[in-house]
User: Fold these one by one.
Assistant:
Number 1:
Amino acid sequence: NAGVTQTPKFRILKIGQSMTLQCTQDMNHNYMYWYRQDPGMGLKLIYYSVGAGITDKGEVPNGYNVSRSTTEDFPLRLELAAPSQTSVYFCASRELSGDGYTFGSGTRLTVV
Amino acid sequence: AQSVTQLGSHVSVSEGALVLLRCNYSSSVPPYLFWYVQYPNQGLQLLLKYTSAATLVKGINGFEAEFKKSETSFHLTKPSAHMSDAAEYFCAVSVEFTGGGNKLTFGTGTQLKVEL
């Protein structure tokens, strides 16, 4: 089915470890986004991309990195995991024109 | 800056009662507004969106919302709550980036509980 696919769904990391959260969309959307969701805080934008090779910081980028080598993929990298990065991460995409956002099912990350 | 505020982090209603979830927006230009629902351990699903056409917007699962410019509000309603409506609801506004493109800025969410 067409959509946004996130892997893994769950992960437990130790402090200081690194990992990459994967996000792939097959709708040829130009825009892609990474959000984190914390209880009572809503969703906060970490990074976004307006197309392959172009990325920019959102509201809460510290501790994260992204790349966008293809239209389909937008991985999120945590280099030195910290307990403050315990959260649920959502990837989303949007077509160039229009207002339809598609969200992935999320990655629940715990840093201990 | 464009933003949304959701009043009430938790709302409890009886099954069959009216559901009213409040959202107020702050925007200097006509906004695009959205309501999303999140069921436990799932992603976000679009309920409805306002894009400056009709001020009364009908969505899925019997929900609707009315854009009121005079009150800067976009409250979500459903005439009769069902147990399956228990979820977290997010109001969001589409915000433009400098240089083009846009993003969604979310409210803090309202947890809806439906009781027998």
Number 2:
Amino acid sequence: GENVEQHPSTLSVQEGDSAVIKCTYSDSASNYFPWYKQELGKGPQLIIDIRSNVGEKKDQRIAVTLNKTAKHFSLHITETQPEDSAVYFCAGLTGGGNKLTFGTGTQLKVEL
Amino acid sequence: SAVISQKPSRDICQRGTSLTIQCQVDSQVTMMFWYRQQPGQSLTLIATANQGSEATYESGFVIDKFPISRPNLTFSTLTVSNMSPEDSSIYLCSVEVVSSDTQYFGPGTRLTVL
């Protein structure tokens, strides 16, 4: 089955700096990669996703890049703000199925 | 997207008892899922809730412990049976909207078993 690894487990940045979270996956058949943000006491919120036929996708301060050859994808947050502080999860969806496999999560802290 | 609600939002239960968690979505969806998130951990899929038939369970999860119902396209329940402190977790419902691959999550049910 699919295995998704996520790094780093914790990330601390200064407000205004950029943050990058990286994930690798094992199943070359995986074709959909969402990113979720989970604030304390809440359910995961979808913030951006990318499909395997696209190399990059951007939505305001958030971007995701995908390298199918290397089987890794990354979340980029620019101009970070304190409200970006949360746990971020990457996930991969195996082709032909509906099961998401999640990474282990990254605790992002944006410091003033 | 979809608006998902879960009841209860949290509960504290005694070991040996059972708790049923409800998940309601505001639109018809193709797929509904139940996840467990242990304290400080990632999300693990328990099962896929199938309308009108038995749920499909992932390895390590069994129907006797986590019976699931899905009587229609917008509602599902998960029961945590014969609870022990190890069942203390957040239980999350998610839905996939009309074959889009995209899953949206409910707010979760925070369960503490004493």
Number 3:
Amino acid sequence: GAVVSQHPSWVICKSGTSVKIECRSLDFQATTMFWYRQFPKKSLMLMATSNEGSKATYEQGVEKDKFLINHASLTLSTLTVTSAHPEDSSFYICSARDATGTSGPPSYEQYFGPGTRLTVT
Amino acid sequence: ELKVEQNPLFLSMQEGKNYTIYCNYSTTSDRLYWYRQDPGKSLESLFVLLSNGAVKQEGRLMASLDTKARLSTLHITAAVHDLSATYFCASTGTASKLTFGTGTRLQVTL
């Protein structure tokens, strides 16, 4: 149980284009999802908290107009990198907080997706 | 602002040896997590520690939490090559979002 998927697992796009990354909780509902970014050999940095049915909360220094987040349902959040540039190349990881439980009460723990590697050329 | 620090950043150890990774956090925390990350992969959850004095063990790894010292440790016993990975601790502070430590890259050599 508690499986989170991301799509695509990797993507290469040209500079100036936009790319959308999906994060899905497969067997539980997640009112809250988190988006992280990880540069090579670095730690994970929280970019934003995605709340179902409301606007995302962005961390300081993260451009909300560049990284568009939509959390339209209890199982899906999307991150769109708009007008991508080479410096946006990174490993993007989402997590989803279990608010319903796969069997039994919800754990409220975060479960991580497999990540999406974005390369902007 | 919650800060989480790990040391060492890099650890090269021989198979069969023991070692400890340290994780310090700056403010009161509800929960402390340990994760493993293999190259090119996402995070694998290892432990969640909820209270002072909590100790959890899985195989050759044992994690403990001292909330008064704001310190968690991950102890490796008789390391084997399969344990080579990067290990992260993370804390929630008093909020719901995770703050990650810098990570410790562990390399176990023969």
Number 4:
Amino acid sequence: GESVGLHLPTLSVQEGDNSIINCAYSNSASDYFIWYKQESGKGPQFIIDIRSNMDKRQGQRVTVLLNKTVKHLSLQIAATQPGDSAVYFCAESFQGAQKLVFGQGTRLTINP
Amino acid sequence: NAGVMQNPRHLVRRRGQEARLRCSPMKGHSHVYWYRQLPEEGLKFMVYLQKENIIDESGMPKERFSAEFPKEGPSILRIQQVVRGDSAAYFCASSPRTSTGSGNTIYFGEGSWLTVV
């Protein structure tokens, strides 16, 4: 849903552990979802996407899970590395729409 | 392969001045989007353009903001008479075809950071 002007939620994990970042989306009509990674001072970088006719999709070290029943999306990062430190945003869209609606974002920090 | 190119990367303007932000989409992309990001927030949609046409400007403030994507040259986001509240990062994105719902990935540029003093 629409983000609000609050401090970003933060997730801290040990290097090498798996990370799970969660996102609740707002529109039950949304049928396309994307995860973006944003490092400080940079633009959002595409990580992985999923359509609503799927409930799981895997990429390199990342997996996205979609639960349409509860309107929940998650991003799993395996064997977290220091370079994974960033803010992660989920975004949703629906057929025919020309815009993405971004979630609030989660700051992922990696402890050595 | 050049990505979405934005300039300037950083821009400082005094209150009341004009800001012009430029965006060149990825090669082969004819759809351009502008988003705004305030600190510690997600991106907010502003406007969607195709060549010479504004398709959706539902996220644009009613006054002082305008956007264009001419037949030749980059897309321009123009902010007139800037105020401190306009300070933000402005991101341009592009895609090859319409309808994000069909899975056409939108790629973002590195952003233009506007500071109004």
